[in-house]
Predict the structure.
Amino acid sequence: MEKLYKFTQKLVFMGLILSGVAILAMMLLIVVDVAMRNLFNEPISGTYEMVQYFLMPLAIFPALAYTYQSGVLPKLSELAEKMPKKFQKFNKYLILVIEVFIFSLLTIYGLKFALSGIADRMAIPVSGNLLPVYPIYLFVPLGFLAVLWVVIFSTIYDRKKVDKESSI
């Protein structure tokens, strides 16, 4: 179980690093584009497309698992804490089932979208050339799959930790 925990932490960290690098590249590209536009009256062609189709998806989808794991997403804990214990337990498992269902659907349909983009060899025009964008489509289902993994694994891991602590 500890090896899976370390794997999950590494997976989340790699997604975070990839997103950070994409955000840094986005900032540098935009700053250089603005400087070139204002100083030399010659912007970098394709900046908008590069940011929109390549860097934005790389900034968002790999970091989804970290975002979920860090707990910054809103939860209705204030409402649930005031309810009876049985309802709290039911609510916890209901939310878990809903999250697994939703992230499974997002993963499946994201994969269908990515596979159709690969089959069609989707590309965007940038400066008169066609740049293939379909490899980036794979980050959509991978991001949702990472969240699904974190949801399932953290539930199992937390449950085992609670069971271990209660047996001591």
About this structure: The first strand starts at residue 123 and ends at 126.
